[in-house]
Amino acid sequence: MENTIFVRVDEIGGWHGTEHQSRFGEPDEEWFDYEVVDGKMVSFKEQTPSAYEGGISCYRLEKGEGLVKLVEYLTSIYWGWDQKQLTIFRGELLDHEGSDGEDLATCTATIKQVKATEVLDQVEEIMDDFECEDITEEEYESKLKALAAELIKEEIK
Known about the structure:
4 helices; 157 residues; alpha+beta; 32% helix
């Protein structure tokens, strides 16, 4: 699927645009370190290419369901997302999944980056309202689609 819009979570400032590649597990200090190997500066990525996914870990955004999947994933591994950002990007869906069952894609353009709390708190509230039967399935889907549409509309120039 070419020209698909995706969402992912990153450490604030951790997105590398079209050069981004996801790593298995959570980055640590080694992620950013360089060391001298045979007289050359070599990054952790160059030393351990098998530590990287075959693309960018993400979820498809268009219908808003990717936002729900992202919240479900994050709440299973983190206590919160205060120090995170959402990255919205355009790219091509790859034909294999990531290590946690997420989509993998390439990036052709970054659309925007926003503080994760601004969006994921809203998604969590919509999910809670649906679970508590405060809104119908149609309202749930409509709210998610509207939120996704808002994220997609302001492209970075």
